[in-house]
Amino acid sequence: xxxxxPTAPRFSRRLLIGSSMxxxxxxxxxxxxxxxxxxxxxxxxxxxxxTPSPTGWRTWYLTSPDELRPTAPGAPTQAEINEVxxxxxxxxxxxxxxxxxxxxxxxxxxxSQLAEEVSAxxxxxxxxxxxxxxxxxxxxxxxxxxxWDAQEAIARPGPAATSNKITPAAGVDPERPSFPSExxxxxxxAATVLAYLVPDAAAxxxxxxxxxxxxxxxAAGAAFPSDIDAGLxxxxxxxxxxxxxxxxxxxxxxxxxxxxxxxxxxWQPTPPEFVETPLHYPLxxxxxxxxLTSGEQVRPAPPPEYGSxxxxxxxxMVQEIxxxxxxxxxxxxxxxxxxxxxxxxxxxxRELIGKAGVGSPQAAQILADLHVAIADALIAVFGAKFTxxxxxxxxxxxxxxxxxxxxxxxxxxxxxxxxxGAGTTVIGHYFPEVADExxxxxxxxxxxxxxxxxxxxxxxxxxxxxxxxxGRLVCALPAxxxxxxx
Length: 486
What we know:
single chain, 486 residues, mainly alpha, Vanadium-containing Chloroperoxidase, domain 2, 2 domains, 18 helices, 0% strand, Br/Cl_peroxidase_C, V-haloperoxidase, PAP2/HPO_sf, peroxidase activity, signal
């Protein structure tokens, strides 16, 4: 998706979706979509940010960055120095690969990518995935912040600053303190949280990855063994706090199907699978949010009354879209419908972080804020869905043939739109130069749901608005400074 020209025309969404000229208008006014698969625009040569001051760092699980600060270890022993020298003397191919895998940018980046791979492998999706990613990235965030806080306070020189026999690998700052190891802290937190979030994974799988990631820092000349041990312990302790919060967030509450309303206008199982029970999401509105006071804080007005003129107008709009669907609308509906919103925004954010050379603490904060916003937006959206239980368009007009399978839960408001609105708002805040482009992507992603025939237009409008509201709440948190201003 290329960046819009400052003079590119902007069109009314209602005009586009209700017009037979929608395809032509999209070609003229929108980025070359599908967009989402193309790199986002960003300045190509930003510098690595200087070490930020610990003042103002916020945390999600810790009461303060120094809550779990380890005791200062004193100077490294000669045995530790020798171990680093030995690790660098004859590195194996596996060691070299591990250094590259786990140290390509800020410590959280490789683990963020791993979360996508694991969730795909174990088929974790929907609201469960958004909860997963918020718990996970907030734990990684606190691990980074706690490690940097301790490094600044203890100021133990790293290996390359201790012995001239040690050469730092590419990307390792020889001037940074090394105790405790940031990469080990992130690895310890990640492994602990993943073991909880993915109980079907082989025992010890994530611990082995954490050990590989942490120990690769020895051969990279970035950490002593005592730095690694302290980092892993710190990360594990933070991961345990994240797991404790997750166990108490209400996501395991059992829903009583007998409470589901029935009758005209209420949700019914939809084709093609006619799933009778709408998963466990009916209680999602009561899950513990991250920044919202409750799932009701941004709850919208009720949907149009069933059978009213406004309701009939919404149904007619979907019918007209289906009857006059342009090639461009169909292509957009299928592209977005087969794209995972969490993976999209995660990838966009990581790409921008890399291009901007963002420092590790802010990179961790951007990713945590991104996934917190999406998680809270969906708590709010699903709380609204199961307040009104609005039937899908295909229920009211069985002659409709949606381009995508209709999700097995109520229509109003749209969850996909909410997630995209929240995620793109946070990305646009941290990277202002792509804010307009992100807004356009969210707009098209939301509009595509009605184009696909799985939502009313009002579902998309309201879901997008809710997501953006939550995104702005997250962006208003302390120290959520745009990268331009860092």
